[in-house]
């Protein structure tokens, strides 16, 4: 058996480690050439509250007669065995898939489930800066039937993968993933196929609600991909968590657990959060105006990320400088460049260093390899400033530095 199984799950929350459950699953089958072979979907009774009905549109009454995930296990395993699992932010859906199978008594060791991620692939093949599936589909001129509806999202994933397959070469660059997937050791299930497909499936009664688009939603829609797939995956989960502008204590801990699963420690998260806020401020400045309401919204995001008003001010200062007083276009920072900070900064040095490190820059003392010296006063007569002029090292202000950081070209991670 070969081909692709495109999956989307709607859930009670974002974190299976915090007992969140699947409330709807949509599956679309593609053959090895990207042609549709079939599909199925159903609501799932999670055995608990259904979570954010205002986002996915599923009510407690609707799932009363729906099968449990345990009921669906034979069908699910029949759907994935020998095939490549595909999802938008695949690590998210795969974590839920494995957690639900474990709750149903199917535990197995070995390697992670081989999967393809259209979030990662879209960053390479689709001209969309946004991480969201609906925006990636729009950029690829693909109709998306309904956001936060499992089958509609699974169909969109399938269409997006088919589009990408038409734009890449044959065999596709992910052939190694499909080879591992075809031989992957899923837990065995002895239920015959005719019994597996006989499970009564329950369709949702209506579409997911159309949420009012807030200012922050519009910014998120044009936020650039991060060149690191694990960071991009984490930011996708983070943006979903920010939909209701609230993170509970357990959601904060679960976000950290999600980051840990992706190989991101707490120190790295601090840099990721500060860099995300900086980029968000840069996108906000695109129209040249920042209102009080917009500043307040950015402060909400900063607070949810464990940052403060000073961090918002830092980000807005840098974004404004980058757009109103840009450094000459002939000078551009690149990952690996050495930066030296000297003297009193307007903002905490640790905040600036975290952003620089996240962008792949090296912070240290002044040497002939230093690319920039950052000082409160570029005309300073300090020892470091004199030595920088002797070495031919440019001297810029703190805001000038961050303007250059925002102008850095995205590169693939090493």
Automatic annotation (TrEMBL):
Keywords: Exonuclease, Hydrolase, Nuclease. CDD domains: DEDDh. SUPFAM superfamilies: BRCT domain, Ribonuclease H-like, TerB-like. Residues 3-170 form the Exonuclease domain. It comes from the Bacteria. InterPro entries: BRCT_dom, BRCT_dom_sf, Ribonucl_H, RNaseH-like_sf, RNaseH_sf, TerB-like. Gene3D superfamilies: BRCT domain, Ribonuclease H-like superfamily/Ribonuclease H. Transmembrane segments: none annotated. The keyword Nuclease applies. SMART domains: EXOIII (SM00479). This is Exonuclease domain-containing protein.
């Amino acid at each position: 058996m070969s081909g692709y199984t495109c999956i989307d799950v709607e859930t009670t929350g974002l974190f299976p480690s915090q007992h969140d459950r699947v409330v709807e699953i949509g599956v679309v089958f593609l053959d090895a050439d990207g042609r549709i072979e079939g599909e199925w979907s159903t609501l799932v009774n999670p055995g608990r509250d259904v979570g954010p009905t205002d986002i996915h549109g599923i009510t407690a009454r609707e799932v009363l007669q729906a099968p449990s995930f345990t009921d669906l296990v034979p069908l699910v395993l029949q759907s994935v065995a020998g095939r490549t699992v595909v999802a938008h932010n695949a690590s998210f859906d795969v974590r839920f898939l494995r957690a639900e199978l474990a709750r149903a008594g199917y535990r197995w060791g070995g390697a992670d489930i081989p999967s393809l991620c259209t979030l990662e692939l879209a960053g390479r093949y689709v001209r969309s800066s946004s991480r969201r599936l609906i925006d990636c589909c729009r950029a690829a001129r693909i109709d998306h039937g309904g956001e936060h509806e499992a089958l509609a999202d699974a169909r969109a994933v399938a269409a997006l993968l088919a589009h990408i397959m038409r734009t890449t070469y044959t065999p596709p660059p992910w052939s190694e993933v499909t080879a591992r997937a075809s031989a992957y050791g899923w837990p065995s299930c002895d239920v015959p196929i005719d019994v597996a497909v006989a499970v009564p499936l329950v369709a949702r009664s209506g579409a997911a609600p159309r949420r009012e688009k807030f200012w922050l939603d519009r910014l998120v829609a044009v936020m650039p991909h991060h060149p690191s797939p694990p960071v991009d995956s984490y930011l996708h989960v983070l943006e979903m968590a920010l939909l209701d502008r609230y993170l509970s204590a357990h959601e904060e801990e679960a976000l950290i657990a999600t980051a840990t699963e992706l190989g991101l420690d707490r120190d790295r998260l601090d840099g990721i959060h500060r860099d995300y806020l900086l980029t968000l401020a840069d996108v906000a400045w695109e129209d040249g105006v920042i209102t009080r309401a917009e500043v307040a919204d950015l402060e909400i995001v900063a607070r949810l990320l464990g940052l403060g008003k000073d961090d918002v001010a830092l980000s807005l200062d840098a974004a404004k400088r980058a757009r109103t007083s840009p450094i000459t276009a002939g000078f551009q920072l690149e990952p690996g460049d050495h930066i030296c900070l000297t003297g009193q900064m307007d903002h905490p040095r640790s905040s600036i260093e975290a952003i620089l490190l996240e962008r792949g820059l090296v912070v240290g003392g002044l040497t002939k390899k230093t690319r920039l010296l950052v000082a409160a006063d570029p005309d300073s007569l300090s020892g470091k400033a004199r030595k920088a002029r002797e070495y031919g090292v440019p001297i810029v202000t703190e805001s000038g530095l961050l303007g250059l950081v925002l102008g850095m070209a995205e590169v693939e991670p090493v």
